From TrEMBL:
UniProt keywords, alphabetically: Cell membrane, Membrane, Transmembrane, Transmembrane helix
GO cellular component terms, semicolon-separated: plasma membrane
Transmembrane annotation, as ranges: 12-32
Region (Disordered): 245-272
The organism of origin for this protein: Streptomyces venezuelae (strain ATCC 10712 / CBS 650.69 / DSM 40230 / JCM 4526 / NBRC 13096 / PD 04745)
Membrane topology field: Multi-pass membrane protein
Official protein name in the record: SURF1-like protein
Subcellular location: Cell membrane; Membrane
Family note: Belongs to the SURF1 family.
Stored InterPro entries: Surf1/Shy1 (IPR002994), Surf1/Surf4 (IPR045214)
Chief localisation class: membrane
Any Pfam family matching the protein: SURF1
């Protein structure tokens, strides 16, 4: 009755179904885990942003790698901006997706150590080789508040660290690289400036990280699992249809081989 399942066509179709089901289930779990990571990330960001600001020296030190648990933690620092060693970070976007640069200015602390401060976004120079117009940093001793971030690397950010860039231009915000250029101890990571707000709104402050949206990963997971459930259902429907078609073909009356010849024979038979 089901011997047709042993045919080459049906064996191939069955093997494809057997491969698709676990593959779709695995893709569903992959999207589900991405959903879980996004939810955990949003919770971490929300908790970090809401934390009480602490002195930056309590969270990092020279050569320190900022752990994920300290990302976006508010930190304060008191010192003097070192504009002589200020650089711009290329290929950065503004809040409305304009391409420009970030202004990275070292802040020399009272104990002589330095922390890097991302003061915000400005437009790049027209020719991409000149240093762009950058609003000056506040003079004298200042106290700032910023969000702590980890050093950028090519592996983590996907940004290629190009060599031979124009003077005072970099691709990555990296405390170790800047320590070599400045010749002083630099605290690991850097601060995204929150306060005080820049005069005239420029450099444009870095917006707080998004921690509300969770994306469509959960919907994609459910979609893949529904597809996985649909494969065996579809296979059963096709099998039943094939069985019905074969039974109908077997039960159909055998048609005469040459109906026209049989009709002629009947007409030629003499009546009695």
């Amino acid at each position: 009755m089901y011997r047709f399942l042993l045919s080459r066509q049906w064996v191939i179709l069955t093997l494809i179904a057997l491969v698709l089901v676990p593959t779709m289930i695995e893709l569903g779990f992959w999207q589900f885990h991405r959903h879980e990571r996004r939810v955990a990330q949003n919770s971490l960001i929300a908790d970090s942003i809401a934390a009480k600001p602490v002195p930056v020296e309590e969270l990092t030190s020279p050569g320190h790698t900022v752990p994920r648990s300290d990302y976006w933690r508010p930190a304060t620092a008191t010192g003097t901006f070192d504009t002589a060693h200020e650089v711009v970070v290329r290929r950065r976007t503004s809040s409305d997706d304009r391409v420009g640069v970030h202004v990275l200015t070292p802040l020399v602390l009272r104990d002589g150590k330095t922390v890097l401060v991302n003061r915000g976004w400005v437009e790049a120079a027209a020719d991409q080789h000149s240093y762009p117009p950058v609003p000056p940093a506040p003079k004298g001793e200042v106290t700032i508040t910023g969000r702590l971030k980890a050093d950028e690397t090519t592996g983590a950010s996907g940004i290629k660290d190009l060599k031979g860039l124009p003077d005072r231009q970099v691709m990555l915000i990296n405390s170790r690289q800047q320590a070599e250029l400045i010749g002083r101890e630099v605290l690991g990571g850097y601060l995204e400036l929150i306060a005080p707000e820049p005069a005239g709104g420029t450099p444009e402050p870095i917006p707080a990280p998004d921690h509300d949206s969770i994306g469509a990963h959960m919907a994609y997971a459910v979609q893949w699992w529904l597809f996985a459930a649909g494969v065996p259902v579809g296979w059963v429907i096709l099998v039943r249809r094939e069985k019905r078609d074969q039974q109908a073909a077997a039960e159909a009356p055998e048609a005469p081989e040459n109906p026209d010849r049989d009709a002629d024979a009947i007409q030629a038979t003499p009546s009695r």
